């Protein structure tokens, strides 16, 4: 026993030590992760080193458990990868972050993981995957009533619709986001919404409405000061909005207004150094507006200046626009060779970047300028235009299909949830019904058991009462017998003994023959007294034996043989001695007793019999009771509905037995009951 306890104690120590070691290891990993993340967020070190620290943090997180702290670290790691423009790693970490959150059934974290995944896909121009992630995140944020993140997700979706050229859906989603953003008074996002709606309306050639929304964006900038934005930051946003408005004014041929906006934007402080991309764009668009107006002042120098800045920034997409504009300029100046050179460079750059819009613009102008290759460029333009239209249509259909599939999956989930709820509800009802049936059955069984116990108690009480009545009768008979014996002793034996004693005393005084003969007579009288005493002794012995055998068969026998009636019927009882009455239930004995009692009462009342017999025998597992008399008998057909016979039948049924009554007028009666033990 001691060895067993020692082994158990050692096992507990080992397990607790292992658990403690696992906990300590996990805490050490979390500590390392925190240290790596802090180092990765140090802006004073190179991006390469920061990414290496993030890699180390992510590697440790893969070996840690799935808890709330691990998920928080994964979110932080994915965000840091995104900020360092390593979008592929941001996607990988976001995917792990989503899986951990789904495993923990943390819907809020699942939505944030999809959010990070979506913006990372968007930066990689993977619009399909970005849209799917946005759509799933939108569903989760909507279910959580997280309107802040929901508005951001819808705005990102609007940008995707703009990228694929579906300006109507872009406008619709942006307005949906704007409604949520206004309620939250999120200034920067409201500004972005107005700008995007204006751009979408421009894409629909709804120029006047586009100008209105750009003006709303400019008006929103007045709220930036209240949120702590500097004047330089506000000027950057204003310059960007002026650039977009200028493009619309050029389309509306309101060149002076476009030139005024570009010129004002270029005068903002620090534009050239702080926002070189926007600065080059403003110069290029200013030059383009002047070209379309027919004002060649500072041209082509402005175009060339913008091209050089873009080249220094390696901004290939904007370099295409600069070369295209230079081609337009030389077309206007009738310098076909230079025009073809710049347009060809723009066309080749657009092809390299798969920029269909710039390809079409370049081909259209080349077909007009390069007479020699005009047919080739025209055919290529038609082919690319048809392909672009097909691609646009396919993109719209694909995104519509993604939206439909996402909605369909959501509908199926809801239907499945409803079905599960219904199944659970039905199961609960069935279980409750089964439980109710079981409870009813249990209560009924318990009630039956209680009734059986009560019936047994009543039977015990009746047996006790019968035994008490029997004992009372015995006590009464014993008292009568004692009184009789006392009288016999007093009146008979004592007087005789007293007379004999006196005679003997008198005769002892004489010795003659006559006296001897008298003494012999007195001795005979003493013998008679001895006989009387012996008779009394025998009576007392019988009474003792009767008292010592108070079992059920003796009760029955006494009940039968003690019957008295006015016609002097002689009663006999024959009880099978092999019956073990102790094993028979009291309820059975009560019914036997009552059947015999009822039969004896009927004999006393109606039979006028000279002789009656009660017999109880056991045949295998069957007990047979027979009560017979030689009295007047009766017609069983006429008395079939009597109360006595009904009681006989009920008691026979209680014994699971059979009742038979045979009688006829003048031929006595026989009552037979048999039942199984």
UniProtKB/TrEMBL annotation:
CDD domains, per database record: HATPase_UhpB-NarQ-NarX-like
E.C. numbers: 2.7.13.3
UniProt-recorded Gene Ontology molecular function terms: protein histidine kinase activity
Example GO biological process: phosphorelay signal transduction system
Ranges annotated as spanning the membrane: 422-443
Reactions performed catalytically: ATP + protein L-histidine = ADP + protein N-phospho-L-histidine
Pfam families the record matches: HATPase_c (PF02518), TPR_1 (PF00515), TPR_8 (PF13181)
Top-level EC class: transferase
Domain Histidine kinase: 592-677
InterPro entries noted in UniProt: HATPase_C_sf, HATPase_dom, His_kinase_dom, Sensor_HK_TwoCompSys, Sig_transdc_His_kin-like_C, TPR-like_helical_dom_sf, TPR_rpt
Lineage top rank: taxon: Bacteria
Keywords: Kinase, Membrane, TPR repeat, Transferase, Transmembrane, Transmembrane helix, Two-component regulatory system
TPR repeat windows: 239-272
Database matches in SUPFAM superfamilies: ATPase domain of HSP90 chaperone/DNA topoisomerase II/histidine kinase (SSF55874), TPR-like (SSF48452)
Coiled-coil stretches: none
Protein's name according to its UniProt entry: histidine kinase
Organism: Flavobacterium zepuense
């Amino acid at each position: 026993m001691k060895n067993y306890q020692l082994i158990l104690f050692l096992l507990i120590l080992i397990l607790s030590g292992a658990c403690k070691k696992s906990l300590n290891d996990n805490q050490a990993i979390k500590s390392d992760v925190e240290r790596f993340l802090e180092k990765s967020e140090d802006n004073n070190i190179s991006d390469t080193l920061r990414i290496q620290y993030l890699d180390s943090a992510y590697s440790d997180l893969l070996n840690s458990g799935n808890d709330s702290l691990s998920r928080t670290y994964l979110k932080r790691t994915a965000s840091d990868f995104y900020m360092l423009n390593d979008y592929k790693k941001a996607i990988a970490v976001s995917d792990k972050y989503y899986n951990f959150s789904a495993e923990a059934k943390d819907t809020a974290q699942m939505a944030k993981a999809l959010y990070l995944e979506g913006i990372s896909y968007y930066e990689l121009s993977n619009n399909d995957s970005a849209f799917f992630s946005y759509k799933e995140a939108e569903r989760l944020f909507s279910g959580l009533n997280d309107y802040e993140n929901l508005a951001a997700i819808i705005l990102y979706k609007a940008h995707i619709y703009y990228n694929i050229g579906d300006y109507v859906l872009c406008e619709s989603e942006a307005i949906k986001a704007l409604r949520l953003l206004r309620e939250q008074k999120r200034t920067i996002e409201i500004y972005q919404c107005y700008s995007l709606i204006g751009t979408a309306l421009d894409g629909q050639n709804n120029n006047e409405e586009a100008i209105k929304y750009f003006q709303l964006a400019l008006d929103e900038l007045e709220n930036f000061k209240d949120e702590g934005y500097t004047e330089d930051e506000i000027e950057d946003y204003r310059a960007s909005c002026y650039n977009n408005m200028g493009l619309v004014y050029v389309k509306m041929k309101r060149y002076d207004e476009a030139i005024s906006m570009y010129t004002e934007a270029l005068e903002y402080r620090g534009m050239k150094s702080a926002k070189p991309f926007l600065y080059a764009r403003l110069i290029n668009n200013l030059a383009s507006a002047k070209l379309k107006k027919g004002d060649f002042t500072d041209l082509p120098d402005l175009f060339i200046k913008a091209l050089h800045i873009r080249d220094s920034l390696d901004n290939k997409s904007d370099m295409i626009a600069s070369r295209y504009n230079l081609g337009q300029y030389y077309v206007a100046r009738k310098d076909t060779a230079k025009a073809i050179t710049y347009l060809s460079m723009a066309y080749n750059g657009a092809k390299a970047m798969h920029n269909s819009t710039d390809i079409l613009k370049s081909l259209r102008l080349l077909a007009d300028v390069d007479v020699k290759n005009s047919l080739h460029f025209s055919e290529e333009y038609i082919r690319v235009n048809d392909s672009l239209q097909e691609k646009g249509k396919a993109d719209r259909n694909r995104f519509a299909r993604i939206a439909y599939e996402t909605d369909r999956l959501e509908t199926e989930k809801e239907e499945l949830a409803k079905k599960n709820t219904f199944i659970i509800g039905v199961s609960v009802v069935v279980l409750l019904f089964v439980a109710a049936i079981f409870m009813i059955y249990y209560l009924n069984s318990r009630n039956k058991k209680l009734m059986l116990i009560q019936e047994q108690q009543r039977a015990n009480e009746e047996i006790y009462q019968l035994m008490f009545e029997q004992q009372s009768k015995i006590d009464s008979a014993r008292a009568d017998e004692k009184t009789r014996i006392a009288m016999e002793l007093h009146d008979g034996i004592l007087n005789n003994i007293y007379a004999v004693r006196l005679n003997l005393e008198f005769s002892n005084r004489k010795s003659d023959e006559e006296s001897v003969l008298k003494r012999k007579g007195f001795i005979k009288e003493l013998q008679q007294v001895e006989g009387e005493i012996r008779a009394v002794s025998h009576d007392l012995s019988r009474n003792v034996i009767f008292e010592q055998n108070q079992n059920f068969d003796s009760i029955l026998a006494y009940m039968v043989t003690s019957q008295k009636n006015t016609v002097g019927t002689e009663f006999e009882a024959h009880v099978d001695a092999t019956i073990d009455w102790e094993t028979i239930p009291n309820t059975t004995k009560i019914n036997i007793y009552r059947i015999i009692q009822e039969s004896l009462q009927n004999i006393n009342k109606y039979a006028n019999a000279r002789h009656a017999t009660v017999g109880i025998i056991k045949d295998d597992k069957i007990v047979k009771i027979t009560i017979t008399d030689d009295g007047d008998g009766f017609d069983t057909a006429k008395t079939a509905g009597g109360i006595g016979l009904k009681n006989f039948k009920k008691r026979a049924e209680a014994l699971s037995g059979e009742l038979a009554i045979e009688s006829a007028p003048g031929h006595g009666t026989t009552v037979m009951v048999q039942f199984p033990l």
